[in-house]
Design brief:
single chain; 9-stranded mixed sheet; about 475 residues; alpha+beta; elongated; disordered N terminus; two-stranded antiparallel ribbon; 15 helices
């Protein structure tokens, strides 16, 4: 005790009697606690054996350290006291966790078992699983921003490619149906001089179809040029140069019945509507499509409600829509029996599809250009956006042909520049509301668009001129 008083005096006499009494009381508590722990350890050696007592001693020592550290006052003047306390606590906790578990106490039932029990097979040694090799950490570089050129090529290869199986199966089915229909017409209408049916459409003409789901079936109508003549659409009541009328001539010298097509005359003009109605009745009621479909391993249904001549074909690998078009070729014109909606039923639509395909291939072959690829991407973009759907097909083709007359660089390296330039040209045509045909400037390819549709298309394309990536996003 004298040493403790001297120690207190040596600190400058700042210690009070209460501190001295507290330290003395703590010493007494520690000595009492130590006596209890010594007694427990001595008895534990008898009960648990040496190893068990050692385990218990380690755990008890760790707990005692925690209790001492929690009850002892902390020196406020030492800034590292708290850090030391935490580190010592983590060490004590690690000491407790490292203490091995005591062996399981035997049950009363186990003690009653006979001593000479049959020997059990030795337990297999536990397999030491080696730690899996550390995977080397790969430093990921930030994603590189793709250019518009790269995005267009990626869009073309990933989203616009038609599976080869479908691209080959669809034409095969269409040709088989074409042969069946040709045989039927020859038997049912031998007096009508139909030409040989042939297939048409982007899937067969190399313009890059978006899907193997549409094919056109062209049915030539062979006319005698001495009995028929063409009347331009601007000279008729419709005043539309895109449509033509086919007039029966010299009725005074060659009366009705001289031509096998006289049965479809309405007011001295060959009626496209009357011809379509006759063919529609044949497709719906006269042809045994279930039998033909079973031969081809598919199901074929004519579309009854539509005014167009359509067949829906369902196969295990592809679903196909086939549109039948009677076609007249006279005076270097290709006319389809596709009259506009309304009361006028004698009009024939002039088609430039064959000329479009021929011109595009000719231009690309001349300079190894990418016009067809650019057009393919543009068609895919417009068909994926409902607001731009009516621009796909012929209007886009004519914009590309117009631009080819002023821009000569159509190499694949300039695909992004030409793509943006086509968008700018489209915005300009929509602002005017006029897109002249490349083959006949009198024809306005926007004439059937509503003003609201033109405004919606123009607004969307105006945004896309500054940010073309908007059009490449899926809708």
């Amino acid at each position: 005790m004298l040493r403790e008083v001297a120690a207190l005096r040596g600190r400058g006499g700042r210690a009070t009697m209460a501190e001295f009494t507290g330290q003395r009381g703590k010493r007494q508590e520690d000595s009492g606690l130590g006596s209890i722990l010594d007694l427990l350890l001595a008895n534990a050696r008898l009960v648990l054996g040496v190893s068990g007592a050692a385990v218990l001693a380690i755990a008890t020592l760790a707990v005692k350290r925690l209790i001492d550290r929690a009850t002892s006052p902390r020196d406020e003047s030492d800034p590292k006291a708290e850090q030391k306390t935490l580190e010592e606590s983590w060490q004590d906790l690690a000491l407790i966790k490292a203490t091995p578990k005591l062996p399981k106490k035997q049950r009363r039932e186990d003690l009653s078992e006979p001593l000479l029990s049959p020997a059990r097979p030795p337990a297999p040694e536990p397999r030491v699983c080696s730690a899996p090799p550390e995977t080397p950490q790969v430093e990921f570089s930030p994603p590189r921003c793709l250019t518009l050129q790269e995005k267009l090529l990626s869009h073309y290869s990933s989203r616009l490619a038609v599976p080869e199986a479908q691209a080959s199966l669809a034409p095969q089915l269409a040709r088989s149906i074409c042969a069946q229909l040709q045989n039927f017409l020859q038997i049912k209408c031998p007096e009508l001089p139909f030409g040989s049916l042939f297939l048409s459409g982007p899937l067969l003409d190399g313009l890059g179809a978006l899907a193997a789901d549409h094919i056109h079936l062209m049915l030539p109508v062979v006319l005698d040029a001495a009995l028929w003549s063409l009347i331009p659409g601007e000279d008729t009541v419709v005043r539309n140069p895109q449509y033509w009328m086919i007039k029966r001539t010299d009725l005074e010298y060659f009366p009705r019945g001289r031509s096998p097509w006289d049965r479809f005359i309405v007011g001295r003009y060959l009626s496209s509507n009357a011809l379509n109605e006759t063919l529609h009745k044949m497709l719906v009621a006269s042809i045994n499509w279930p039998a033909i479909g079973s031969l081809l391993g598919s199901v074929i249904h004519p579309v009854v409600a539509s005014q167009e001549l359509k067949l829906e074909v369902k196969h295990d690998q592809v679903e196909l829509s086939i549109a039948l078009f009677p076609v007249v070729e006279m005076e270097d014109k290709v006319l389809l029996a596709a009259p506009p909606e309304g009361l006028v039923e004698n009009l024939w639509l002039e088609s430039f599809y064959r000329a479009e395909v021929s011109k595009l291939k000719e231009l690309d072959a001349g300079d190894a250009g990418a016009r067809q690829r650019c057009l393919h991407i543009l068609n895919g973009v417009c068909k994926s956006h409902p607001a731009l759907h009516k621009l796909s097909g012929s209007p886009l083709t004519h914009v590309v042909l117009h631009l080819s007359a002023t821009s000569s660089d159509w190499a694949e390296e300039s695909l992004a520049d030409r793509f943006q330039q086509v968008l700018e040209e489209l915005v300009g045509y929509l602002e005017k509301g006029v897109l002249p045909s490349y083959f006949n400037h009198k024809i306005n390819l926007f004439c059937e668009l509503l003003e609201e549709e033109i405004d919606e298309m123009g607004f969307m394309l105006y945004r896309a001129v500054s940010e073309p990536e908007l059009l490449l996003k899926e809708k």
